[in-house]
Specification:
six-stranded mixed beta sheet; alpha/beta; single chain; globular
Amino acid sequence: DGTLMNERKEVPDSTREAIQALQRNGIHVAIATGRAPFMFRELREQLGIHNYVSFNGQYVMFEGELIYHQPVPARILERLENDANEKGHPMVFMDHEKMTVNRKNHPWVEESIGGLKVELPKFGPHSGKEIYQALLFCPEHEDNEYVEPYKELKFIRWHPYSLDVLVAGGSKAQGIAEMIRRLGLHMRQVYAFGDALNDIEMLQAAGTGVAMGNAADVVKRAAD
């Protein structure tokens, strides 16, 4: 969103051509995203990109093999959900195949996830599978009600009404490092492109970090 895809959630021809040129020249191309794997399957197929760092670094696939994964501990998620319920804040839970929401028809959920042009999550308990990322829906001024008490977790705001929730220390940079290790390369050989707050660590860690023109100033300052 805002990197491969434009504001209309379309991949420009110029982007497609650039990726094809990289691939023809033997450059490994991967997607690093906060999205779950099922949310960008069609995009991978369109672009012929099969390696990816998803859930902000928590689930890394390389040539069809899961090479790194770090789920959120269930006991911490349960405590967070109870706390959010008391405050009237809905949550979405994502495993590698699907997502569920714990409140029906909530406008914050519909506005934020609906803007991604993906199917809205189904209402119901989460699957019992490992949860790699949750979404917490609350206004920005209430962030510290969660950030301070939950040191085991990392909260990344991606929408005025929504935060990504993952394990503390998790990042796209960490996921990329796992993939680069498998390739036998070094981070100095990596070029990373991003536009959002969850890209900052990746842009700093890569040998060359490139911020998109639409990126916030704090993201641009992190780039080369």
